[in-house]
Specification:
single chain, alpha/beta, Alpha-Beta Plaits, 2 domains, 6-stranded mixed sheet, 37% helix, 23% strand
Length: 333
Amino acid sequence: MTIGDAIAEPLTGIAGPVSTRSDAPARARAAVGSSGSSVVQVESLTKRFGEVLAVDNLSFALEPGTITGFLGPYGAGKTTTLRMLLGLAAPSAGRATIFGKPYAEVAHAALRIGAVLEATDFHPGRSGRDHLRTLGRAVGVPDMRVDEVLRLVELEDAARRRVKGYSLGMRQRLGLAGALLGDPELLVLDEPANGLDPDGVRWLRDFLHAFASEGRTVLVSSHALAEVAQTVDRVVIVSHGRLVVESSLDDLTARVGASVIVRSPQLPQLLEALRSENMIATETNDHALQVHGATREQVGDIAFAAGVPLHELAVEGSSLEEAFLELTSETAS
């Protein structure tokens, strides 16, 4: 069986299923899920460029079905880390693995792992379709798959135009189309929303949510913190090449001052239940409770255990941007 034979059903669109699974990737997903292994494992990763320490003993992991924001100030070592993860740079120490192996040892890596590190790696004289055909033929993907991904990223009308006439946002979509050629289980994206208009940003967000809902995994590096907060469920924040925090988004915002707003028709009973668990809860002027230093999951679990129905459960307070600035400024000082 050729690599091309491994390509099965096409991605059918954002609103519907996004399945392109072949038998081999499906078995790999099942194996990852059953073993509890991480899709990506970065362990004590270090990279030096002469006297410059770009990445310093960095460790984190990505689990199946998650969207993780890889965040940090400019020069924090994010792109260098992604390059080491994808086998484009050799670490000075430590290791980075995907599906338990270094990138170079992953079977059919070009099909199972999709990556976009920059949206400029195109021949300007080629059409978008010819660019994707060149990529696809290099890894055994049939030409029909090119038209499928062009439709998926909504570039079919520009498929025959030369890439030199594409806007930055169109190049971003073309780069994502290339990453999707092989039906990947992991997407690694560096600033994917750069150049997209608001509709494009919303489209990308919806796509990534649908992608992850199938048990696939996304690592997205970005400086657009407001958009990241609407897209990811986990964050890895680095500064000066070192890990600052690895956390769920809810846990992170709770740690730096966020609160949970909760409404219930049985507010006194809920207040009693929360305080019995040593939660700090106060009543608001609009007949709700504000719970400090807690996550939505914690408040919801307490309410469920107490048999109290909930009408609203929302995080309020610190944004991802506020948390990011607080944590990176602490590291810098």
